[in-house]
Amino acid sequence: MINLIKKVIFVTMFKKQLGHIIFYRSLTNLISNSIDLKFVVTFFIFLGSFLPNYAQNETLDLDYNPSTGVITHDSIKSAHFIIKEIIIKGTKITKDKIIYREIEYEFGDTLLARTINKQLLWVKNRIFNTTLFLWVDIELSGDDPINKTLYITVKERHYFIPMPTGGLIDRNFNEWWQDRNHDLKRLYFGVNLKMRNLWGLNHTLKATAYTGFNTKIETNYIIPYINKNLKTGLIINTLAEFNSLLAYQTFEHKLSYLEFDGSIGRRKYMVGLLFTRRNKFYIQHQLGPYFQYTSIADTIAKLNPEFFLEGATYQRSVGMKYNFIRDRRDYINYPLKGNFLKIEADYQYLNSIKNLHVTSLRTEYTQYIPISKRFYFSAGFKGKMSSPTHQPYFSQRGLGYNKEWVSGYERYVIDGQAHGLFKTNTKWKMFSIKRTVKFVPHRKFKTIPISMYFKVYADAGYVIDKTYNPFNTTLSNRLLAGGGAGFDIVTYYDLVIRLEYSINQLGQTGFYLHMKASL
After folding, report:
1. Which phi and psi (to 5°) does residue 444 adopt?
2. pLDDT tens track for 102-122
3. Exposure winner among 142, 166, 218, 353, fewest CB in 10 A?
């Protein structure tokens, strides 16, 4: 019976082509942030079908993510050697200059032999982190003891990804199931179109459209480089959203919703430009303006006059945003080594019945430390400060939004003008395998890498709230703590599945499912 279950799960998950695989991924979004025990057991049975014929790839000792590719090179007996030639193989769409952008060498460069392992590893990681390839193999070889050829072999991803999308109007499954009586009307469905690597230049076009209680059309066009020296880029974003179900206030740290049967409770339009500058490999600057217009029904303004302040039914926003990003992670999808720093400064001029200048400063820093080949530790901090103290309800956000929460507090929102979140994570790699599945028709899905980690984690957070709402004082202005244990499953196409059991300081516990890395 167990063997039959394993076969059924395995065939169900992988016998179809891209559309069906993505459908299952979209389906998990419908039950985001929670999972029952039966699913956990079934999933581990499925993972067990991969364990026979385990084989480890040859990798450098420094490489903590061998599934991203392997690095090999000849033994080098001299102190220095010369890069005679760089040869790129495996590209059918991608222009070579996009790969050369991530290589710090040119023909004829002289390199130190004692540092070559570390240098080649960072080259591989940079190329892989373009997210254009399933893996990147690097080989340094040559008959001459001094003159060497650098071979870079890549396997391109599937770049055109139309897929059904769906999810919950609510922030996560637990809120929907426990607080909203698992109302099926609160689901939305639509289409998510992603076209990657247009013209082989790593351009990305994302278009999302869905309907239900909320109707949304959003486009995002990313041009990493618009000049010849491949340093300046541009991001263009547009959004139109119409809500028939709207959260108009927070009461006892839960969102209160109002349904507009056959009408629209909120209309939102936004357009933004973001210019990017990447002079060096690991540092990027982003700067650009945006414009947003939002209107609400009279009922919302009466129920919560502070939604836009003073009972206003509209708000225009003209803003300017600047981001500083320093990314030294070995693998951006699931990092195990390195660090990440982001600082975001945002200014908005809000025009309504009451005009207002709102500024905010966000910072994020995470350090990833490999303890050994199987044990890893990470610690990170996210924080926000904003001014003035009295802001529209629509503008201020604390913990509980945008997947920023203390573990175990997924059901709650904690509004405020400033907050801090500290997270730690210790994990042990259980296994890392790569299997070739012959009956999968599409060649880009035949080889399936899967890594699994057991982890324990602990979080702490604090929200400062000095506003007008006296009904949200239980969790604000106090230290919050939570933690737990679980498993991370990492596979291709940036898919990370987190199965977690968390407990908070209120004594509340639960199983949770997340689809991205926590740190």
Report:
1. -75, -5
2. 998 888 999 999 899 999 999
3. 353
